[in-house]
Amino acid sequence: MIPVVVALCGTFLPEWLVAGVMSPIPFRASPYLSLVYGVALVYLPFGICLIYKGYLTAGKIDNLAPRKQSDMLAATYPAYARLIGAEKNMQEGFPLFAAAVLAALQAGVAKDTVSLFATAWLVFRGLFIVLYAIQFNAALAALRSLSFGFSLALTTKLMYLAAAA
Would you state the pLDDT for residue 154? Predict the structure, then answer.
């Protein structure tokens, strides 16, 4: 229920707040480049899982039944399971982000504004992945949830900006 409320309230996310939060970040990705970086972020947990799987299996990666092997590793190694969870969450969230960026551009929202929100999404989703991978207590889990919520609000704000243009 909370993500629904965050999504519906995304319109109230002020640009000055996002700009303030992003002020320490020295770059802004162009809207289209943010989509490329977003794809890379989607597959970052998978890449880390693959390296970790190689380590855990001493290089004996089962390419005939990779999901079965991953399920077995996830049942035994909590960090591996968290990385799989991060990957699934990224795969679920990226299509919404991509649609929001493309809708904002198509609607004529200023590229600087789209770049600000898209770069903020990249930063918070990157933070989400890190927090998901390392969480070992409730405080880190709460920060992970906050980063997810803020990135969802950024996505829906882009959609609202597109709708208002």
Answer: 97
